[in-house]
Amino acid sequence: MKNRIISxxxxxxxxxxxxxxxxxxxxxxxxxxxxxxxxxxxxxxxxVLQGDFEELYSKIENKTLPHSISILENEExxxxxxxxxxxxxxxxxxxxxxxxxxxxxxNSFTSIEKVDDHIKATSFARIATESFxxxxxxxxxxxxxxxxxxxxxxGMHKNNYVSCGMVLLDKNGISGLHMIxxxxxxRGLGLGKIMTNKLLFEAxxxxxxxxxxxxxxxxxxxxxxxxxxxxxxxxxxxINR
Length: 241
What we know:
Layout: H1 2-20, E1 23-25, E2 30-32, E3 42-44, H2 53-61, E4 69-72, H3 75-83, E5 87-98, E6 112-114, H4 118-132, H5 138-141, E7 150-157, E8 160-169, E9 175-182, H6 191-205, E10 210-215, H7 217-225, E11 229-238
Parallel strand pairs: 3-4, 9-10
Antiparallel strand pairs: 1-2, 2-3, 4-11, 5-10, 5-11, 6-7, 7-8, 8-9
């Protein structure tokens, strides 16, 4: 299952990159690189046996590739990366939930709106940037508006858009929940939980039997309470500059 969790995330990046025209296919890895090295600047799907790690290091050092390499935990691959002076920067948890029809949320999300125009795309980018602390460009979000596989949402509180989230239906029929965030001053009001339930509702509507996501250590505790099971780690490596 851990492979499918990370596969959903990588499919998200490829989908965003393809629609934004910044997906690049190298011989032994893929990478996405929007303007200003903004989200989601990543190298991923790195092949352990075929990769030229010295060349990879050099390209990152010369800023011709994104600074971050994301991999599903893999002892052989990680050994190669460490051998070539890469540094482990972060670990997030892969999580999944088996959907049961009896647990489907009611469709009563009056405070949440689908991102379906440029104005809402701009709001999504602003909320995500403020929530996660890295730049998310409106120009990255706009091409996603009419996607059939990916749906984006923003949540309102007291006439302000303050939360965001997206759900991707992947080629395996699994729905992935991504970019669930709330602006810091509005946290603790249950808005993230409302957004999560909205995305779960969309996963049911997609006909998915399973939902996946990746979460930080603090997020893992929150999603565990909703029934998500932890399986596997996504690790990010980079070079020292």
